[in-house]
Amino acid sequence: MTNNQFPLADEEPIPELDTPELSVPVEMDENSPEFKFQEGRAVAIMELAIPLMLEAGRSVMMGNADAGERVASLIVMLENSHKEPGQGEDGFWLAARDIVYAIFVQQESAVDIARRTEALDKGEGFAWKTLCVMAYLAASLHPHVIPRLAITLHMAVAEFIHRHTSYNPQVYELKLMPWFVWYWYRTFENSKFRFYAPPFVAMDLDDAMKSPPNVRLQRVLRAIAFGVWEPIPERSKHWFVSASPDYTDDPLKSTLPDNLAK
Q: Which residue blocks in 191-250 are alpha helix, DSSP H?
């Protein structure tokens, strides 16, 4: 028990991660061949590779019979992408493949997978940022990741995901955002002992589900973050505020009814 008599098991400190600044825009000529090249890679990761990885992760977590097939298909796709005819191996796609290997085959720790972002070739452009997103999401698929670390990983990349995929409802509203909702409902139901005041977290999650799709992700993540007393990252605070007019830095005020949050 904590001093507040809340049964919380996640009081150990979360490892510090060198979270990349994903929100800084890259100054590139949008009509240049290099921009188009970067954009093509980014779209392939955000709209194809990441949704496939998350669905494979869901199958693994649920113990579905098709889990191995989904993982194998994703690895084959990335393997086929990393070799350009006459150009040798492509480090970008090798890095994407290695992230998938790390979680599904090598089963590295969640922190080690997240820290793969520190070794990425950041160079010019912005496509590398999508690999950071991929690595953080892969880390959250680890079977032993605790909610506080998983929510930290998700909050670090959620705004970037929303900004770069919400224009495409087929990807964001039908694949990515529902996956986050499924992930956190499942995590909460399976590990309520890791949350402060679970009944109020459940209320927040139910309220989040009633919100429009364009703000649902922010509200789900906020409910979980306050449930484990993990602060909203400063760099994403405006994004959360704009989605939740009642936002407050006080974890208790965010979850308690009005008559108790005085």
A: 198-209, 213-227, 237-243
The closest alpha carbon to 114, from 15, 232, 261, 214, belongs to: 15
Q: Are 229 and 196 in contact (CB under 8 A)?
A: yes
Tell me, yes or no, if the pTM score tops 0.90: no
Cα 252 to Cα 92, 125, 149, 224, distances in angstroms: 43, 41, 20, 13
The CA distance from 182 to 166, in Å, is: 18
SS3 call for 24:
coil
- DSSP per-residue codes, 155-199: HHHHHHHHHHHTT-HHHIIIIIHHHHHHHHHHHHHH-GGGSSSHH
Is the CB of residue 117 less than 8 Å from the CB of residue 131? yes
User: Would you give per-residue pLDDT tens digits along the chain (262 residues)?
Assistant: 343 444 444 445 556 666 666 665 566 677 788 888 888 889 999 999 999 999 999 999 999 999 999 999 999 998 887 665 545 557 889 899 999 999 999 999 999 999 998 888 776 567 888 999 999 999 999 999 999 999 999 999 999 999 999 999 999 999 999 999 999 999 999 999 999 889 999 999 999 999 999 999 999 999 999 999 998 888 888 888 888 756 555 554 544 344 333 3
